[in-house]
Amino acid sequence: MNEGPRTAIVTGAGKRVGAVLAAALVEDGWTVVAHVHHADDSVPEGAVKVVAALADLACAHTIFEAARELPPVRLLINNAARFAHDALGDFNPDELDAHVAVNVRAPILLTEAFARQHRAGDDGIVINLLDSKLIAPNPDFLSYTLSKQALAGFTELAARALAPKGIRVNGIAPALMLRSTGQSAENFAIMHARNPLRRGVEPQDVVAAVRYFAQAWAVTGEVLVIDGGQRFDPPSRDVQFLEE
């Protein structure tokens, strides 16, 4: 496998786990294109910032244009996601459209752009950030969950379609890592380690998974669940709505 200079693209790299991933890849020697939504968003030191709205049909062109003069893009991490609440009885069709645009359509457009620029003989990898609630779903966050289920389906379809090109497509499905919008600090403190291992999932666990997939040249179409065994005792609702 060609292991010369290489570029990684990380969407949603201005905050939360995306920023941690971008910083870790810079540390590992990658040239990193860090996508953000707003021009005033910061990115990890050493990364190349690109601003794009993932709901825009031109988002993939904008992001890959930022990498045009950089080493070949060998890694794409579709990390950015919309996460807003709706549920049956409170379903918002506009929210479904918005979630699909950011959480499904944008990763598809970016994956297509990745495949178009891929060089024969290089190892290429796409990693989609999913959610462990797909393994044991609950009815909260209906549009978000449906969009992540669609992205999980796309992960396998893309892995099948792109394997002949030498491109691997995998997913990482972490449980609760960081406090969510609307979640109280008290609820997060209680629920973070609500799993059989009694260990809260941390962003560095996702970094470790990315590093594994980056070197696992014979692995494609897989989803790695990082949940401390939470799926063995799944909650009936999203954790932020549970009592102690």
Protein architecture, described:
It comes from Sphingomonas telluris. Pfam families: adh_short_C2. Keywords: Oxidoreductase. The mean pLDDT is 92. The longest helix has 25 residues, at 93-117. It contains six helices and seven strands. By secondary structure, it is α/β, with parallel strands linked by helices. Helices cover 35% and strands 16% of the residues. A seven-stranded parallel beta sheet has the order 3-2-1-4-5-6-7, with helices on both faces. It is globular.
Helix fraction bin: 25-40%
Radius of gyration: 17 Å
Profile the largest sheet: 7 strands, parallel
The parts where pLDDT drops under 50 for at least 5 residues are: none
Order of helices and strands: EHEEHEHEHEHHE
Rounded average pLDDT:
92
What spatial form do the alpha-carbon principal axes imply? globular
Quaternary status = single chain
| Count of distinct strands | 7
Keywords: Oxidoreductase
Family: Belongs to the short-chain dehydrogenases/reductases (SDR) family.
Pfam families: adh_short_C2
Protein name: SDR family oxidoreductase
